[in-house]
Amino acid sequence: MKFLDEAKVYLKAGDGGNGVVAFRREKYIEFGGPDGGNGGRGGNVIAQAVEGLNTLIDYRYAQHFKARKGGNGAGSDRTGAASDDVILKVPVGTVILADDKETVLADLVEPGQTAVLCRGGDGGHGNAHYKTSTNRAPRRADPGYPGEERWVWLRLKLIADAGLVGLPNAGKSTFLAATSAARPKIADYPFTTLHPQLGVVRLNATEEFVLADIPGLIEGAHEGAGLGDRFLGHIERCAVLLHLIDGTQADPVETYRTVRAELEGYGGGLVDKPEIVALNKMDAMTPQAKTSRIKALARAIGKEPLLISGATGEGVPAVLRVLADTIKAARGA
Description:
Layout: E1 6-12, E2 45-50, H1 58-61, E3 64-66, E4 86-91, E5 94-98, E6 104-108, E7 114-118, E8 149-156, E9 162-165, H2 172-179, E10 197-202, E11 208-213, E12 240-246, H3 252-266, E13 275-280, H4 287-301, E14 306-307, H5 316-331
Parallel strand pairs: 1-3, 2-4, 9-11, 9-12, 12-13, 13-14
Antiparallel strand pairs: 1-8, 2-7, 5-6, 5-8, 10-11
């Protein structure tokens, strides 16, 4: 299934049904009076978060959603039927934005959570509504009120506990594959990961968390370089970030600062999240390189980085334990 995390759709709620002018016509009953009924309510447009979806691809090809108009009133004081609602099923974690892409209309983070995006119009009054002691035969009936309509943006932000960040080829996909049952594409060239990937990391029978891997960042990503920074939205909900740095690169400090600059350029509170820095690919480094790069990185970040190898698994359990403890503290568990 193709991954799509953003879509623009047009929504139109149903108009209300029209009221009618009618009079009671029955044998032996003179001056039966007005009995025109009111119109029915138009259908609403509702977004609902459902389990089992992880993409907005359904809204790539169907972009217009309109609810039906309410039924018109009828004689004998009969009210028109209310129309059914139109329900848009979206993945859990979907944010619904107004056309300006800034105003948040709804944030659906729980399965079954709903939000009314457009309300249907009320039905118009029939002439029975207007009868009074001085106006016993009104000939006034109102049309139904129009339903709301708008363009909205659907933006998916995956629900994960921890997020992986780093430059391309830092070993993020290898780390995800080594710690979970996820099987992302792994290769020795940049931008192997084109779409976010999720994996469930199980430490033991009672502890587990969801880890998100996003495409690599390069300098200028917040200005559109590489794959851009739009995928950073998928780690906005994470409690902690795991920053992987390729230990085989000559200057890990510059690598660290590049990624941090892109996180700051994106915003969204990412730079304020707890961060765990790990120097990856220790199996490909000489002892001298390990020592010098760890010292340089420690001076730059103000704490000792962790040393791991996603390929051999060395140091990985310690990182997972730190991640789990940080998530537990951040979630207040």
